């Protein structure tokens, strides 16, 4: 709903209310977190952009730009899982089986070949897909059950920035004298997208026990040396999130611009909604209106990615009681797969 102010094309001050799509996509708790993030740091956390229509946006992006085809044979996650298979197949414990817990599973496509390899060795106990987005869990379930009808599949919603992995999902029934270890995956450079990485690392660490592994992928290198070219997620994914979020909040396309830049405060590359007019967004939460004001030229960050240098990754892991036990890079040396364990306490 727009007020008379915003109906006047000459007015430089617009007043808008988010659409019903916004209120049906996000829970009250999530809307409160979005309002807080907008007020405190002018950001809509990227994690929320995978929910609702955002699930389809990610799956489409994946199908169009990431899935291997005859003309695009390489895929970072598939290549790195394959290269590290000898460390990720449970062979470090004699006779062991593995549970794969895929946090931020998306459409589960990246793990298809890896699970097939585990299945051939008789190593897979079960696959657990966890994600903040119900929409993507639906896609994951459909894909996985189609590929692996005989493997036990569980899924659940989880925001790893706010919660640990529930203990009930991680505690294994003693299985015919075989030990089962948990391999927790966090793929798709998702660790570099979080607002609060230290909380994410701490939640992983608190979820793990001795011998469990945490496996993540991320881009490596220097963020500040970004050449200004939008590629991969920063290009298509950010653009489609921008279209969806601006329409869900009812910001008119002619009143804003999509701007990508280097954010020196958070040392990451970001995509922002830049306002061309003064704006008031009126959120309604628990029956109470909450106004947030923006001036022309203000920005809202809707997408971010932080590349790691290896020593910094080791430092962030150590602060959460985790240890990098092995890493390798893809053939272009642009991405890393990091395999971590709970730090050894003497
Ligand atoms: C970049 S995609 C990667 C998907 C998949 N792992 C892959 O490699 O293709 C990020 C995924 O993590 C999920 N996600 C983002 N933030 C999350 C959070 N805080 N907790 C749980 N899932 C999250 C998104 O919904 C999305 O499915």
Automatic annotation (TrEMBL):
Histidine-specific methyltransferase SAM-dependent domain sequence ranges: 33-336
Pfam families tied to this protein: Methyltransf_33 (PF10017)
Protein name: Histidine-specific methyltransferase SAM-dependent domain-containing protein
TM segment ranges: none
Lineage, top ranks: Bacteria, Bacillati, Cyanobacteriota, Cyanophyceae, Nostocales
Keyword annotations of the record: Methyltransferase, Transferase
GO biological process terms on file: methylation
Annotated source species: Brunnivagina elsteri CCALA 953
Family annotation (InterPro entries): EgtD_Methyltrsf_superfamily (IPR051128), MeTrfase_dom (IPR019257), MeTrfase_EgtD-like (IPR017804), SAM-dependent_MTases_sf (IPR029063)
A molecular-function term among this protein's GO annotations: methyltransferase activity
